[in-house]
Specification:
single chain; 132 residues; mainly alpha; 6 helices
Length: 132
């Protein structure tokens, strides 16, 4: 029997930030989780190293964020410096960020990924229990 989820709790566990790499992975996951569910499902199915998988997604995000900053786009699509602060991830390896990310979401389904960062009251209704 499942217990009711408090609306003041996250639907899925937030990524524990312990260093710059995990902080970067959390920022990526927060951004990526807002993509359409079919896009997330394709990446989840591809896995870590598949063409278009997690490593490719993190790499593309790095490029998009850096482009936002180079173009000085106010309220950039991928990295809004006014809200998120300065970009401090230029020296991180994409593979290291992807490794932290996959360690956290490795067994999640697409719906769980899409619920990342959302409180239980705003989470998409799913039929299975969220991963722990």
């Amino acid at each position: 029997m499942s217990t009711p989820t408090s609306s003041h709790r996250y639907h899925v566990q937030p990524l524990l930030v312990t260093d710059l790499t995990s902080q970067c992975a959390a920022h990526f996951l927060n951004w990526f989780s807002r993509k359409p569910l079919p896009v997330i499902a394709k990446v989840v199915k591809k896995g870590v190293h598949g063409n278009g998988g997690w490593v490719d997604q993190v790499d593309a995000w790095f490029e998009l964020c850096e482009a936002d900053l180079r173009l000085a786009v106010d309220g950039g699509e991928c990295w809004n410096a006014n809200v998120l602060g300065p970009w401090v991830y230029e020296d991180l390896a994409v593979a290291d960020v992807a490794r932290v990310l996959v360690r956290h979401v490795g067994k999640w389904n697409a719906t769980s990924v899409s619920n990342y960062g959302r409180m239980a009251e705003g989470a998409t209704i799913v039929t299975d229990d969220p991963p722990s």
